[in-house]
Amino acid sequence: MQIRRAAITDLDDVAPLFDAYRQFYGQRSDVAAARAFLDERLRRDESVVFLAIGDEDGGELLGFTQLYPSFSSVSLKRLWILNDLFVAPNARRGGVGRRLLERARQWAVETDAKGLILTTAITNEDAQALYESCGWRRDEEFAHYQLLV
Predict the structure, then answer these.
(1) CA 93 to CA 85: how far, in whole Å?
(2) In angstroms, how far is CA 97 from the centroid of its own chain?
(3) Any bridge partners for residue 44, and if so which?
(4) pLDDT digits (tens, 9 = 90+) for 41-62
(5) Residue 42 region, left (φ>0) first, then alpha (ψ -120 to 50), else beta?
(6) Residue 27 has what pLDDT?
(7) Claim: this prediction has a pTM higher than 0.85
(8) What pLDDT, in 10s, does the model give residues 82-113?
(9) d(CA 103, CA 50)
(10) 48: left (phi over 0), alpha (psi -120 to 50) or beta
(11) How high is the pLDDT of residue 59?
(12) Nearest to residue 88, comparing CAs of 106, 105, 100, 80?
């Protein structure tokens, strides 16, 4: 498998997988809207998307991760938000998620970032086990809040 950064030319391939990711979180299917959202993020350089592509079956798209930039005022450094991580159901338990997480970590090093942060559902124990096995640590120091508008 290879991991590479997505380009505009990848939109038609990644949009259905991004749509499946959104459905996993309870959203209705809308491949066109998923494609438009990714198109805008990539064209505006507002996110970095890494793709996991299989070596067989014509380079099937196995998964993706999307990182959004943020900043740490205290450390005066960039910080990356790992907002999305999704592996196609037929590719799960094959190391795809682990490889995407490793590429995200490498990206943080390459961009001289303080690190990466992510949020996952408390009930998503499989994802938590993966993150922790890759060196991620649960934040026990800060409470996280949100205000939805």
Answers:
(1) 14
(2) 9
(3) none
(4) 999 999 999 999 998 767 899 9
(5) alpha
(6) 96
(7) yes
(8) 999 999 999 999 999 999 999 999 999 999 99
(9) 8
(10) beta
(11) 83
(12) 100
- In three-state secondary structure terms, 137 is coil
Classified as helix, coil or strand, 82 is: strand
Does residue 38 contact residue 96 with C-beta atoms inside 8 Å? Answer: no
Tokens of 80: 């990356």
Q: Quote the CA–CA distance of 59 and 133 in Å, as a whole number.
A: 27
The answer to whether 71 touches 79, Cβ cutoff 8 Å, is yes
- Within the chain, residue ranges assigned H as helices are 11-24, 31-43, 96-110, 125-133
Radius of gyration for the alpha carbons in the chain, expressed in angstroms and rounded: 15
Contacts with 70 (C-beta within 8 Å, 6 or more apart), sequence order? 78, 79, 80, 81, 117
Phi, psi of 112 (to 5 degrees): 55, 40
Integer Cα distance of 26 and 20 in angstroms: 10
Q: If we measure between CA atoms, which residue out of 34, 40, 36 comes closest to residue 64?
A: 34
Bridge partners, residue 71, by sequence: 78
CA distance 85 to 112: 22
Q: How far apart are CA 93 and CA 89, in angstroms?
A: 9
